[in-house]
Amino acid sequence: MSVDISQAFITSSETISDFFQRPGVGYYIPLYQRPYSWDTENIDQLMSDICRGVDVLLSNDKNIHFLGTVIIVKESNPFVNINPQDRKALPPTIYNVIDGQQRISTITLLACLLYQRLEQIREKLPNDSNTDGLKEAIDSYLATLWEIFSVDLRRGSPHRKPIIIRGAVDGWTFEGDDKNNYKSQVSYFLASFIRAITEKSGFPQLPPTGSSFAKNIRKMNSWLKDIEKAYEPDSEDEEFPPAWEILTKMSQVDLWSYERPELISIVEHRSNPISTLEKQVCSLVQLFAFCHYLLQRSCFTLNEPVSEDWAFDMFQSLNATGTPLTALETFKPLVVNFVSSNSAAFKDSKSEDYFEQVDELLSSARSASSKNKLTNDYLTLFALTHDGTKLPTQFSAQRKWLTERYNGCKSMAEREEFIRRMGDLATYLVKAVNFEPHQLAAIPKTEKVSEPHRKQAALCILYLKDAGHKMANAIVSRFYALVIREEPNADNEFVYACKAVAAFFTLWRSALPNTGLDDVYRKLLREQMSWEKGNTALTVTNLKAYFRNILNDKGIGNQNDWKNKATQYLKYDNAKTVCRFALFVTAHDTISDPTHPGLMKIGTSGSSPSYLEPNQWISSDFKSIEHVAPQKPELLSGNDWDTALYGNNDDYEQIGNLTLLPGEINSSAGNKRLIEKWIYYRHLAETDPNNLIALKQEAEKNGVHLKKNTIELLKNTSHKHHILPIVQLGATGRWDKSFVDKRTERICDILWERLHAWLT
């Protein structure tokens, strides 16, 4: 008997919205399928892809994101094959999920969390006609998200059921309780969510921490929180655009069905500081853009084989290796073929040596998802360093870019140079970005540079990494490539480039939000310092001059202008890691100011233990940032903190109210009265062990009764030189708004003097 092959497989491309909104369709994961096993790396990859997709969409309205292949087979005999079962509760159409259950399950969970965020914002909107259009737009998205994670049976209690269940574990139930019928984590979460919406009983709490499932839920929630807050000037999410940028470049039809000028006006004419309603509208625009890209621009290739046997043949052929290929893995054969056809062999060639450096970088990935993320980050950075290209994360775009650039080389030597550049960047990421202070005193190949400077450079690399300032690597790696190639004086140039980038970033982020910072680096690469521009302009002198010009253009090019902004902006809640670095810089070689108790001033070289070393940055002694005036004084009995610090400007977050402490000490000091904190600081500042006994008596004299374990903790903590100025304030000193302002100014003065010197 002949077989009509053309009818064996039904293949189509479907958006996420279309796939999940098939009327009366439920998805069933057969018993033999593995459990839900995605981890937070998979979640990060999915969320990052969608966020970057939104960003790319603003400049390319044809942008889509391919989420892979899904293989499903329509269940022909549900009354026999679906177990356990309540016949009254079976959806009209059931599909067995052969491949893609991890993605399908995750998207349903993400839809729940999106629904919750939109609904919670909706509840807080004022009840007036100005928000009617906004509520209508929210309701439209809620209706679509409702379809993503539930199937409507139009019977039973509740009518809607989880859209996906796991065989032998879960069973669609007509009116039974959720806990006994949905025992897999995914389906129980969906069922609980559906019931909460139906009965208006309040959304279920996030699952307890511990399991990978709970971590995934919390990771997605964290991403959504960042997306919701992308309008904030201090947002750390550089991938997701703020509301006003979305409204300028994205079609309103895509965002909320038709033009709504009254809502655009709210965003465009936002006040400073931004009002509550303006924040709500901005958050919704950002979440709407995310929803649109997820639901309408993200898609599956859907394969529906006629028989389950054919479905598994397809699954095996598509997933023979068990892990998806990356753009680099598909690019390498092109290089091998070209080299082999133009020389003796790829093996033992220079191109092979350079590719081995890339392989060394990728070998650190422990899973397929982490390898994919590392590849994306590496190629994004390489495209920037090569010619300033902003490369998307899509496999096809990455492979196309690599292929075009490689094939565009005019000679064998040029192609070899292209691969060498790839190897140089990989070596930088392995040797510099992944530098381990526990193993080495400084970054490899900088040993000939004077000790203070090479250690400061290593500290700067660690700082920029912790601050999430990935763009810095595009510049610094170019200088390190010359070190690898042993160009004259390249090690010194690299070290001072690290310090210049750290200084520029710190001065910018101490006074300004992230907005526009990435463009500064892209312009520098495109016009002067990319590989395509050559190495002529790649000098620290040019780099410093460029950075100084940028600071001038931004109105923070001199100390007074910068200080006026930094004293207001340099706060814990604006830039936590920048504050920590500022505290390190201003603790180094500073002493107590005898004329202004509580403040520090610049001392002579060596007047303090060195704070500007990589091992200090990772030391537990300086791990935590302490708010001297606590963040939550209302928790204290007998609170004696200045209420002026807790006004509308949140001055308790100022750099002048911060210091460095070991994590355990910070937790212990926490929300304490000033006199209690001062006793703690006295212990940390004391160098004579004999005086520690007298301190216990002094504490009791001031009504502070330290527990035995607290005393031991303080005794076992090493001396903290930077605490001395605070101790000089005295037990009766005033830590009020006036003093915090003065300390903020002093820290800013020292910070400018130190860092501006790194730029001149």
Describe the structure.
- The protein has 760 residues and is an alpha/beta fold.
- It is built from 32 helices and twelve strands.
- Strands 1-8-3-4-2-7 form a six-stranded mixed sheet. It has a two-stranded antiparallel ribbon with strand order 5-6.
- Strand 5 and strand 6 form a beta hairpin.
- Helix 4 (101-124) packs antiparallel against helix 5 (132-149), helix 20 runs antiparallel to helix 21 (490-511) and helix 21 (490-511) packs across helix 24.
- The protein starts with 8 loop residues before the first strand and ends with a helix.
- The model has no long low-confidence stretch (mean pLDDT 89).
Give the averaged pLDDT, no decimals: 89
- Stretches with pLDDT under 50, minimum 5 residues: none
Strand count: 12
β-strand amount: 5-15%
Please tag this protein with its features:
single chain, 760 residues, alpha/beta, six-stranded mixed β-sheet, two-stranded antiparallel ribbon, globular
